[in-house]
């Protein structure tokens, strides 16, 4: 695809659906042309089911290392003598690494190829899981860093592979990818405690079990490693993104909604245990809430793109999220499952809308790739502060009630950023071949 240096549209409201449709069709034609070139020269791509299976298995592994820790956090803390602040750091480190290591993804992909990097990082993720569950306190923190870094790199690469190799069905495939993420998180949240109980109440075995799906995914991804995408090795430079206010609004929305998500992954079971639930019950509530995200993660983007912009959708899903969070924290425990379902509906929508905004606010695929790297790099770094703040506040107060202030502040910030990011505008940048 031969692209000359082009400037994005002036920042004006995109007033008609016809205009948006024409622009999207132009991008789709370019993507399909690239897809046809790849299919003509690489037989493996003619078997998209193999790539689809590999993508699903890889995506399933991008959350268990994060959500498996929460139901066992109290057991791990007691076993190793961790303070609440140290436990907060344990939940923060993987999320921080998502942001810090995300910028490495495009560099590694240009050097080694995206498929090889994904395979190598899956093995690194498996190593981090083993390290976290077998080598005491040092291994626990070092493995968490390695796991978070691995997930951060793969998480940046997979959407680009989806858009490249499934150009005609990119929307559907993004939904499948998001659902696989949610399913992996739900499986780990709900089954880690029963697994540890099965292995003589060993939290190390419960956490270590998740090395198995990582290795299985690596085996099924192996056939993709031989592919070389010559036309896709051409690099493009995108200038001006860090100076663009809209790009920062998208980044802030990604980061703040992610902060609430990782507070839930890291601390919701502990909060519920503090309210009287057993670890198994708390893990099941988290798992059930994440499973509900499967529905809203597909529905929210579809509904949001029916209107002229996404501002109303962002306000609705954030309101559902905050309502569910406050309900889980303060409402009578008898209605807990209702609040957990409300929380799942909200968070599934907030996450999928964050991904959708990256595409809608970008003029072409190169801008989208760079905006994705920026929003995940800076966004996840910001998101890591949420779980850490919860640990600090809990340590200071000795309870969970004050955590509601964190929910309110982060949620309000996400709504404000989302009202800016949800406008029907394009980021103002330049994209050129290098």
UniProtKB/TrEMBL annotation:
An example molecular function term from Gene Ontology annotations: transmembrane transporter activity
Keyword terms, alphabetized: Membrane, Transmembrane, Transmembrane helix
SUPFAM superfamilies (alphabetical): MFS general substrate transporter
A Pfam family that the UniProt record links to this protein: MFS_1
Entry GO CC: membrane
Listed name of the protein: CynX/NimT family MFS transporter
Keyword Transmembrane helix applies: yes
NCBIfam families in the cross-refs: CynX
Bilayer-spanning residue ranges: 49-66, 86-105, 117-135, 141-162, 174-195, 207-225, 246-268, 280-300, 312-333, 339-360, 367-390, 402-426
Organism: Pseudomonas khorasanensis
Gene3D superfamilies: MFS general substrate transporter like domains
């Amino acid at each position: 695809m031969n692209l000359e240096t082009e400037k994005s549209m002036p920042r004006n409201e995109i007033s008609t659906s016809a205009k948006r449709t024409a622009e999207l069709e132009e991008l789709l034609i370019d993507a399909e042309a690239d897809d046809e070139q790849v299919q003509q020269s690489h037989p493996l791509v003619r078997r998209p089911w193999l790539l689809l299976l590999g993508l699903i298995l890889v995506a399933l592994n991008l959350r268990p290392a994060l959500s498996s820790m929460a139901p066992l956090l109290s057991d791990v803390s007691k076993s190793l003598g961790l303070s609440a602040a140290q436990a907060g750091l344990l939940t923060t480190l993987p999320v921080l690494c998502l942001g810090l290591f995300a910028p490495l993804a495009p560099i590694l992909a240009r050097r080694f190829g995206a498929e090889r990097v994904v395979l190598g990082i899956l093995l690194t993720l498996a190593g981090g899981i083993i390290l976290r569950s077998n080598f005491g306190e040092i291994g626990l923190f070092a493995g968490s860093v390695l796991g978070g870094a691995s997930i951060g790199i793969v998480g940046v690469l997979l959407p680009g592979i989806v858009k490249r190799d499934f150009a005609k069905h990119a929307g559907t495939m993004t939904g499948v990818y998001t659902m696989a993420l949610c399913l992996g998180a739900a499986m780990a949240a709900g089954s880690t405690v029963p697994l540890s109980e099965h292995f003589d109440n060993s939290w190390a075995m419960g956490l270590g079990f998740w090395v198995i799906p990582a290795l299985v995914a690596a085996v099924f991804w192996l056939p993709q490693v031989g592919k070389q995408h010559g036309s896709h090795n051409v690099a493009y430079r995108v200038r001006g993104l860090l100076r663009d206010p809209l790009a920062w609004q998208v980044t802030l929305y990604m980061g703040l909604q992610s902060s609430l998500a990782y507070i839930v992954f890291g601390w919701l079971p502990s909060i519920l245990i503090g309210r009287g639930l057993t670890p198994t019950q708390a893990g099941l509530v988290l798992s059930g809430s994440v499973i509900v995200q499967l529905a809203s993660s597909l529905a929210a983007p579809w509904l949001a793109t029916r209107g002229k912009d996404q501002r109303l959708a962002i306000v609705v899903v954030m309101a559902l999220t905050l309502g569910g969070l406050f309900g889980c924290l303060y409402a009578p425990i008898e209605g807990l499952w209702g609040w957990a379902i409300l929380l799942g509906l909200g968070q599934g929508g907030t996450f999928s809308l964050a991904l959708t905004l990256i595409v809608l606010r970008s003029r072409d695929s190169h801008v989208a790739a760079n905006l994705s790297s920026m929003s995940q790099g800076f966004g996840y770094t910001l998101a890591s502060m949420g779980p850490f703040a919860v640990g600090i506040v809990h340590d200071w107060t000795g309870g969970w009630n004050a955590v509601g202030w964190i929910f309110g502040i982060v949620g309000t910030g996400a709504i404000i950023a989302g009202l800016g990011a949800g406008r029907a505008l394009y980021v103002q940048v330049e994209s050129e071949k290098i």
